[in-house]
Amino acid sequence: MKEIFARHNWTSSRKVALPLLGALALGAGSTMALAENGPAAIRAQPAAASGDVSALVSSVQPAVVSITVEQLANTSAFDPDDVSPFDFFFGGGGGPKRRSPSPHVGKIVGAGSGFVFDDKGHVVTNAHVVDDASLVKVKLSDERELKAKVLGRDERLDVAVLEIQGAKNVPHVSLGSSAGLKVGEPVVAIGNAFGLGGTVTSGIVSAKSRTIGAGPYDDFIQTDASINPGNSGGPLFDLKGQVVGMNTAINPSGQGIGFAIPSDAIREVLPQLLSSGHVSRGRLGAQIQSIDEPLAKALGLNDTRGALVGDLENGGPAARGGLHEGDVVVAIDGQPVVHAHDLPRMVGAHAPGSKIALEVKRGSSTVNVPVTLGELQDEKESKPARQAQPSSSSLGLRLGNANGAGALVEDVSGAGPAAGVLVPGDVITEVDHQPVKNAAEAKAKLQRATNDKPLLLRVEHEGLGRWVAIDRKAG
């Protein structure tokens, strides 16, 4: 059995990374009022609120399901020696595979978790749990095993909705508010750990709004409640018996560190998944990057808050609205953008075609930029911006003329301050906001630049632009 567990090694980025050229959004559309009073609705027992976990478990566990998934696979190329124990426990496409007698086509069987959230038998789980599934079965707490249909998947948030076929009298739970969670608050995780089914663990909320590099919408609840392979898609409950998160990721090299998608984020996308099977998101058309202290100094900023615009899509929504490369987005519709990774979720609160107002720092001025969002296309993913990392002591660069305007970085000395910031193949197009035509001009501008603040460079690599700051006094 291949144990399915989401974002298995959270230190590894997914295909969709934060500074996407277009995909700066979360789910759009109205929120959904989930059923709480249907005939099969589960109500948390009063004792749970006073800390009686056993009463809580008795009240909510009937709505938690174990999911079995079958995938068709070409087994002729299967080699057991290629299976890594790490892959088995934490995913990554490996894991023991149980094959059919056919030498060409077999079945890969995986396990996950989920929970019923309404009286129609709809189940929420992780999108990766049902990825490429040829057959999905749901096992209820009363031992009934029923087929389920995948109604919709949202790979970016890693959420899927299933419909249990022929479901009658299936208990369900309600989504609570993850925004109201407090660090230190007790929580309970229930799921199909290691395919064993019905495993209950408890802990506290260790942190909120965690960014772990899993995708563009990272906003995880961190918990020390034990989460294991097979728990993917299972609910994280507060002591009121409401779902406040969906267990999704762990750190395979740590203990007591698990991550759950907040219930508020799940609630945002459910209406679209139920109605259309996919989530339509707005597209800003800007590649962004975070701001470190050297960049802030080089840009003349007082702090590192906001999202720096590294590049713009030609003719894209942001460019048409008047956003510039080098702008720092500090607010959207009056809501502060504290970190660069906040921007995708904030843009995602709006549907394609929506008009948003960006508050932008541009040099010493603050301007408002109105943008009409485009629509994000699933098949178009762009390359993430590389983050500038400060290095130490003469620039240590060998420059040549680029094809077109700019100075090509041919080599970077490991002892110079540009090490770790610039790489061979980078093209310097600006020095402290001054355009560079060739290598000679770049060298002259670099020599004339003062040392009172980090050197600000505009750099392009494989068609994508970014800003970097080099502190020549460091080291």
CATH class of the largest domain: Mainly Beta
CATH topology (fold) name of the largest domain: Thrombin, subunit H
Tell the overall outline. elongated
What percentage of residues falls in helices of 4 or more residues? 10-25%
Low-confidence runs: 1-48, 76-104, 379-393
| CATH architecture assignment of the largest domain | Beta Barrel
Can you tell me the number of structural domains?
3
| Class by alpha and beta content | mainly beta
DSSP helical segment count: 8
The oligomeric status of these chains comes to: single chain
What's the pLDDT, averaged over the residues?
Answer: 79
Distance between the termini: 52 Å
- Rounded to the nearest angstrom, the radius of gyration is 25 Å
Largest sheet: 6 strands, antiparallel, barrel
Instruction: Tell me the β content.
Output: 25-35%
- Strand neighbour order, sheet with most strands: 2-3-4-7-6-5
DSSP E strands, number: 27
Pfam families: PDZ_2, Trypsin_2
Keywords: Hydrolase, Protease, Repeat, Serine protease, Signal
GO molecular function, one term: serine-type endopeptidase activity
Protein name: HtrA protease/chaperone protein
Protein described:
- By secondary structure, this protein is mainly β.
- It folds into three domains: about 280 residues, Thrombin, subunit H (Beta Barrel), CATH 2.40.10.120; about 90 residues, Roll (Pdz3 Domain), CATH 2.30.42; about 70 residues, Pdz3 Domain (Roll).
- About 10% of the residues lie in helices and about 35% in strands.
- The chain contains eight helices and 27 strands.
- Strand 17 and strand 18 form a beta hairpin.
- It is elongated, with a radius of gyration of 25 Å.
- The N terminus is likely disordered.
